[in-house]
Amino acid sequence: xxxxNIVWSNDGTNYDQRCKILNQKGxxxxxxxxxxxxxxxxxxxLQKKLANEGRACYRLDGDNIRHGxxxxxxxxxxxxxxxxxxxxxxxxxxxxxxLITLVSFISPYEKMxxxxxxxTDKGSFFLVYVKADIKTCINRDTKGLYKKALAGDVxxxxxxxxxxxxxxxxxxxxxxxxxxxxxCVDNLYELVSxxxxx
Length: 198
What we know:
The protein is α/β, with parallel strands linked by helices and 198 residues long. The protein has a single domain (15-189), classed as 3-Layer(aba) Sandwich (Rossmann fold), CATH 3.40.50. Helix content is 40%, strand content 14%. It has a 5-stranded parallel beta sheet, sandwiched between helices. Helix 2 packs across helix 8 (181-192) and helix 4 (77-96) runs parallel beside helix 5 (110-118). The longest helix is centred in the middle third of the chain and has 20 residues, at 77-96. The mean pLDDT is 91.
């Protein structure tokens, strides 16, 4: 419900001006996939590549955000939706600032990924499905979360005791079972690099 007493504040600058200052277009690259699929690794390497080119970018990572902004949320479906709602709003603000925003969240539900896409204009949002077999993710489990989930010690764990809805409209699928980290980063860079130019 919208409060009629709350009005968006404009400061006299606009998106085009901010992009001109940064010499790039704002963009959201949204990584989705199971825990251990490689979302954070790919996002981190892409951020390094872009930063080395002098690009202004920032990575919003699921674990990092849950340390602060979303520390009050759990992992039931309602809290997962709120987690994604909040970060979609933040990512849209970062994009409006002209930043390349790399968002690496499991984001298991199609409706919330669509919500995130709806927060910005077409051509500025790229959904990247980082795909890996559940067995691969379990083998990569550096935090031991899958082991705990399989033992019943972690509830509502995506892929084990909570669902993951595979994207139906991903802009790019990065299959980390069959491609190296560098190959995934290169494929993604090829998709987005031209779209950053003014």
